[in-house]
Design goal:
Radius of gyration: 17 Å
Strand content: 5-15%
Largest sheet: 4 strands, parallel
Helix content: 40-55%
Mean pLDDT: 91
Order of helices and strands: EHEHEHHEHHHHHH
Number of helices: 10
CATH topology of the largest domain: Rossmann fold
Structural class: alpha/beta
Shape: globular
CATH architecture of the largest domain: 3-Layer(aba) Sandwich
Number of strands: 4
Number of domains: 2
Low-confidence stretches: none
Strand order of the largest sheet: 2-1-3-4
Amino acid sequence: MLDVLVLCEGHTEREFCKSVVAPYIASRGVAVQGTLAGRPQQKRGGVKNWSVYRKELIRLARQRTGRHVSLLIYYFRMPHSWPGRDDASKQPLSSRGRYVEEALIDDLPELGGLFHPCVQLHEFESLLFVDPETTARVIQSVTGMTVSSQKITRELEEIKSSFAGQVEMIDDSPENAPSMRIIQLVSNYDKVACGVLTVQEVGLSTLRSKCPWLDRWLHRLESL
């Protein structure tokens, strides 16, 4: 099995790699594992300076011969000091993630073809708008909310429709990020429990068809 270690932005993304991506990609002969930056006792979520990730990626890649490393992180939480981040703002919105990915690869020549960054435009919760009905059902099951799942489904569908069904574009201010929109509907929304379980039920095949960034990243891993 080919070894790929993914440096994740937070705990939800790490669980996503473990519970959703790893089982899916294993059949392609690729073993994926998520981790967080920092020492074991200091591993916390959140986007740090690029120098922290750069050093960590090199260290992880050199732990094992032939190991590939990846990065799962979000463009709008990325400090402007990251390679390509400032210039990416001049690119079309849909191209910014790919632009930063290329800049990160250029900044890590030490890893050659062993580095496969994934820069999503917005946060993890954008995936939850792919299938509003499943999302509403899972959230109701996990949180025990009193609002009907049908009402939540309608609300999520309306948000999705306002962005022409392009779930990756659902984020036009910090207050209207995907997670904040969900919290406005369900105050006790649990990011890890609800988020990961929802994408498990929706399935990666469906998610890939609606999320170009995810399809691009998985295709890259499948092609190793």
